[in-house]
Amino acid sequence: FTGAAQWVPHDGGMRKVTATLPDCRGCDLYEYADQVVPGEGRVRARMMLIGEQPGDVEDKEGHVFVGPAGRLLDKALVEAGIERSEVFLTNAVKHFRFERQGKRRIHKTPSAGQIVACRPWLDRELEIVKPGLVVILGAVAARALLGPGFKVTEHRGRSVELPDGRAALATVHPSAVVRSQEYRRDFARFVDDLRAARELLP
Ligand code: URA
Ligand code: SF4
User: Fold this and answer.
1) How far is the CA of 74 from the centre of ligand 1 (A)?
2) d(CA 63, CA 57)
3) Whose CA is closest to 72, among 187, 180, 195?
4) Which residues line ligand 2 (CB under 6 A)?
5) What's CA 37's distance to the chain center, in Å?
6) Which of 76, 58, 66 is nearest to 135 (CA)?
7) How does pLDDT run across 74-87, given as a tens digit for each residue?
8) Domain of residue 86, CATH code
9) How far apart are alpha carbons 150 and 142 in whole angstroms?
10) Is the whole-model pTM more than 0.95?
């Protein structure tokens, strides 16, 4: 596997990206997942939020952030005063990676190689959407965009610049809040970070 570049269209818009994604054989993940999950939302959004990879529910339904993490994200966006319909939502990796435990499929973090392999899709989405602000949700998206040295917990809620000069802000992944032992505190902090992102919008 040599990465997604040869499948990513150089012309056309988001419809073409969505239409060509199912052909991708850029890494091994397409073999196990039910389907690829494309980014969704407003194509000319000012804000693009980037998660990790589809979860179990997203893989079955074919849409981003429709499972437990998505419900939490929806709630947090409302509290932060951000309309889901106004943003573009996508993932660093477009196929679900999991381990089977009996009948259950347990999320497995994508490898560094899979994150790099999928990056050309993310680059194309960024080229098309041209967001004024990128919101990085969690360590995998941070790794994809800022490299392995960036620590979300150290820099969360503050503006950072991507290597290509784009403005960004990193926060935790909503699934980390779903699982938190200190849910109320961590949900409030997540909302604070999203509010800070809204204030950074150009
Ligand atoms: N987690 C993600 O990072 N993305 C989704 O689409 C769902 C859960
Ligand atoms: Fe292609 Fe990304 Fe799916 Fe790998 S995870 S097959 S690179 S779309």
Assistant:
1) 12
2) 8
3) 187
4) 4, 21, 24-27, 29-30, 36, 93-95, 114, 117-118, 121
5) 11
6) 76
7) 999 999 999 999 99
8) 3.40.470.10
9) 7
10) yes
Question: Which two three-digit tokens encode residue 123?
Answer: 């680059």
Tell which atom from ligand 1 comes closest to the C-alpha of 141.
3
Q: What angle do CA 135, 136, 139 make, to 5 degrees?
A: 165
Distance of alpha carbon 202 from alpha carbon 195, whole angstroms? 14
Report ipTM for this prediction: 0.96
Instruction: Give me the residues paired with residue 37 across strands.
Output: none
Report yes or no: 63 and 39 within 8 Å, Cβ to Cβ: no
* CA atoms of 87 and 134, how far apart (whole Å): 10
Based on the structure, what is the number of domains in the chain?
A: 1
Interval 44-67: pLDDT, tens: 999 999 999 999 999 999 999 999
Nearest CA to ligand 2 atom 8: 94
Q: Which ligand is nearest to the CA of 136?
A: 1
Atom of ligand 2 nearest to the CA of 117: 7
Q: Residue 193: which domain range?
A: 5-200
pLDDT of residue 67: 98
Asked if the model's pLDDT at residue 113 lies above 90, the reply is: yes
Record the tokens describing residue 52, joined without a space.
């990790």
If you measure from the C-alpha of residue 154 to the centroid of ligand 1, how many angstroms do you get, rounded to a whole number?
Answer: 22
